[in-house]
């Protein structure tokens, strides 16, 4: 079944991007690509997936190879906006159109152990870690990494779900059962100063560009606020982030946008995880950068030249979780840009975001405070 698009029709003879996943990330890809004459088609299990507003929506499971082939048929390129897409299903599209980024990035991102081993292999600093395959293995892993530690399910965790903080021996004893008796990664808790992320893009011919480092604030495992450029970063830190991103992108022969979540400690960057897709901490780029992460992802996967990733000034993004604030109140704040994902409100659900742009960091912080008071 193909749901009718709510707005728009396909540009004639232009490229068509098939997107696996139809959430807000897919929707924003569509909103960015459309002015370039690019049409979109989405696959998502939810009949009311929000990307349906910007292109035809095919309803089906993202692990269903037949559905994936259907959405890929006739497309110029296939991409994905969710890292949970099974790699084999993504590969099923390859007979119809190139799949970018290469689905290997999905396999890496879907297993925290594989991901951490890859960081380490590429010389990217990470917290000490060890795998655990049973209850006794958790205790052995803790012996190796020390307490406090975090036990995380190797697969299926997101937004802080599927992980437990281990402070005491009793926590260690409980962790295996509490996390569902599934393979775990145990890692030392990093006493970080703050969380940062780097959003990077690699073109088909292999050019890599990064947006400035972003400072991220989480609550309950969910991103709440991003500030960009991250205040107080040094040129050396920006270069270190660009360097580790380039190593990852090249190793994965990656084409498109990728984000790496980082911890800053004593001026050093430790990698936590990667997202092989456009990322929440890059939403500020829509108004705050010369080229948004969404536009550059579209450009990259279509084999087009990349746009500048320079910041236009100072920006901050605040997520609307569970419900939207009053639109008029937000719009009355100077420099505020309102994004409504048109999703039904539900506790813990990202239903929109607001970006503030400003000429200076002080002005950005004032505007952010004004928005935070109503979000
Ligand atoms: P993750 O699911 O790995 O992205 O973790 C979610 C959040 O938990 C991160 O954004 C951090 O705030 C926190 N966290 C994860 N791993 C660690 C760690 N090794 N040390 C300290 N905090 C962590």
Distance between the termini: 37 Å
Q: What does the main sheet amount to?
A: 9 strands, antiparallel
Strand content is 25-35%
What is Rg? 20 Å
- Globally, the shape reads globular
Attached small molecules = adenosine monophosphate
What is the structural class?
Answer: alpha+beta
Give the beta-strand count.
18
- List low-pLDDT spans: 4-9
Provide an overview of this structure.
With 375 residues, the protein is α+β, with helices and mostly antiparallel strands. The protein is 29% helix and 27% strand. It is built from twelve helices and 18 strands. Strands 10, 11, 12, 13, 14, 15, 16, 17 and 18 form a nine-stranded antiparallel sheet that branches. The protein has a five-stranded mixed sheet with strand order 1-4-3-2-5, with helices on both faces. Strands 6-9-7-8 form a four-stranded antiparallel sheet, with helices on both faces. A hairpin with a 5-residue loop joins strand 10 and strand 11. Helix 1 crosses helix 10, helix 4 packs across helix 5 and helix 6 crosses helix 7. The longest helix has 17 residues. The chain is globular, with a radius of gyration of 20 Å. The two termini are 37 Å apart. It binds adenosine monophosphate (AMP). The site of adenosine monophosphate has 14 residues, from strand 15.
